[in-house]
Amino acid sequence: MPEFHIELSEIAREQITKLVGDPSKKVVAKAVIKSLGLMCTNIKHPSLNTHKYDEMRGPGGETVFESYAQNKTPGAYRIFWFYGPGKSTITVLAITPHP
Q1: Do 28 and 36 form a contact (C-beta atoms < 8 A)?
Q2: SS3 55
Q3: Rounded to 5 degrees, what are φ and ψ at 56?
């Protein structure tokens, strides 16, 4: 299984900074960080429940995927991302509650 490097878009960087800095979002921040770690080492890990997200495209028209940071939780957080720009790079577009 290939390993990936995670790049955060400006929006995703702002979102994770806000989560980490908010004591009331400690559980969410921990789940997001754990999921990003899994994405680096095993993008097909069952807990990520990664699947194609048809309602969005990357900035260059890339296919966007959705991975779970949380599950079975009201407003569960999701990570939206695409492959690239490099061969072993994943670019995270957004980290948000389930739309």
Answers
A1: no
A2: strand
A3: -145, 150
Dihedral in degrees, nearest 10, Cα atoms 42, 47, 89, 64: 140
* pTM greater than 0.85 (yes/no): yes
Its sign, for the CA torsion 68, 50, 5, 80, is negative
Q: d(Cα 22, Cα 75) in Å, to the nearest integer?
A: 16
Rounded Cα distance between 86 and 99, Å, is: 28
Checking if the pLDDT of 80 tops 80, the result is yes
Task: Report residue 59 as tokens.
Answer: 């900035």
**Beta-sheet pairing, 89-97 with 77-83:** antiparallel
The position carrying tokens 């980290």 is 95
